[in-house]
Specification:
The structure is a single chain. The strands form three sheets. Strands 3, 4, 5, 6, 7, 10, 11, 12 and 13 form a nine-stranded mixed sheet that branches. By secondary structure, this protein is α/β, with parallel strands linked by helices. It has two domains: 5-89, Arc Repressor Mutant, subunit A (Orthogonal Bundle); 93-309, D-Maltodextrin-Binding Protein, domain 2. The protein has helices at 5-17, 20-27, 31-45, 61-89, 104-118, 131-139, 182-185, 198-210, 223-231, 241-249, 279-297, 306-309; strands at 50-53, 56-59, 93-100, 122-129, 145-149, 158-170, 180-181, 190-192, 216-219, 237-240, 253-259, 264-270, 302-303. Helix 8 links the parallel strand 8 (190-192) and strand 9. It comes from Phyllobacterium zundukense. Keywords: Activator, DNA-binding, Transcription, Transcription regulation. GO terms for molecular function: DNA binding; DNA-binding transcription factor activity.
């Protein structure tokens, strides 16, 4: 036997107000219709729920029992409706965003600030990692979103931007009008990450094309440590434009773009497949794309056109 929610709402209102007339006015339902609903509910339960008196109606003992349950159920439904509407307006929940280590300091801070201002109830966690680790994290749904290299991301990933690659040296190491080809860069004393990293893989391929060997003087995992080693005069490195934009601005490092041809890498937005994103994930994704566009306009990288990416 299933109780009719509408009948329970009508019954609760009548019992609370003690009057069919007042309940009819409050609910906007004709009094004969209310009486019909109540007779149907009493017949369904096989018990009298309301006593009619000259002063109105009062709930019977059985009616009081039903009323206490009905009020709890209706209150829970009202709370569920309010919470759903609140979620639609102000999404809540956890969102995990993974970002390639070399650009995480640049990209993560404005995303965090914007998300905190627009959606304070969204709990955003940002993790940095190399492209291989980010791919695994997306595949296992550890991350809801990941900004990573297209060379390791799924084919369903959305292109975001192109990064020019630069040779990075200590402050004043390069003249402002200097140029450097990719082939020439292969002979430089380079500090590079291990072979699992995207830039190392890209440079190994370039060396193979030229029939050359990379001149690796040190292997260091971590962009911050690599930059510190460069400042200490321990070698040079090759990084994307987004990773050294601030260092070029404050002149703590010097950089020269690789030319003839220019060497770039494409970054993409990767997401789990066959797993519909939550409202919170959708909103964080929108913020991320807006920040990518803004930073691109400031010169951190070259954003891909909407025609290419379909998402920007």
């Amino acid at each position: 036997m299933t109780l009719d929610l509408l009948k329970m709402r009508y019954f609760a209102k009548i019992a609370e107000l003690g009057s069919f007339t007042r309940a009819s006015s409050d609910l906007g339902v004709a009094q004969p219709a209310l009486s019909l609903h109540m007779r149907g509910l009493e017949e369904q339960l096989g018990v009298q729920l309301l006593n009619r008196t000259p002063r109105g109606v009062v709930a019977t003992e059985a009616g009081q029992t039903l009323l206490s349950h009905a009020q709890a159920i209706l209150r829970a439904l009202d709370q569920a409706e309010a919470a759903t509407k609140e979620q639609a307006k102000y999404p809540t929940g956890d969102v995990s965003l993974g970002i390639l280590s070399s650009i995480c300091p640049t990209l993560s801070i404005p995303v965090i600030k914007e998300c905190s201002e627009c959606f304070p109830k969204v709990r955003l966690t940002i993790s940095e990692g190399d492209s291989q680790a980010l791919r695994v994290a997306v595949d296992t749904r550890v991350h809801d979103l990941a900004v990573t290299l297209d060379s390791v991301a799924k084919s369903t990933s959305a292109p975001l931007f192109e990064e020019m690659l630069y040779v990075i040296g200590p402050s004043g190491a390069f003249a402002s009008d200097a140029t450097l080809t990719v082939e020439e860069a292969l002979d430089l004393p380079l500090i590079l990450p291990t072979r699992r990293h995207g830039i190392r893989i890209l440079l190994e391929r370039q060396a193979l094309m030229f029939g050359r060997e990379l001149n690796i003087v040190r292997e260091i995992e971590g962009v911050a440590t690599t930059k510190a080693a460069i400042r200490a005069g321990l070698g040079l490195t090759i990084l994307g434009r987004g990773a050294i934009h601030a260092d070029r601005e404050n002149r703590s490092l010097s950089a020269i773009a690789l030319t003839h041809p220019g060497l770039t890498r494409r970054l993409v937005l990767d997401m789990p497949v066959n797993h519909p994103p939550s409202r919170a994930v959708i909103e964080v994704r929108k913020i991320l794309l807006a920040v990518v566009r803004k930073l691109g306009a400031e010169g951190h990288w070259t954003c891909l056109s909407p025609k290419l990416s379909g998402t920007l």
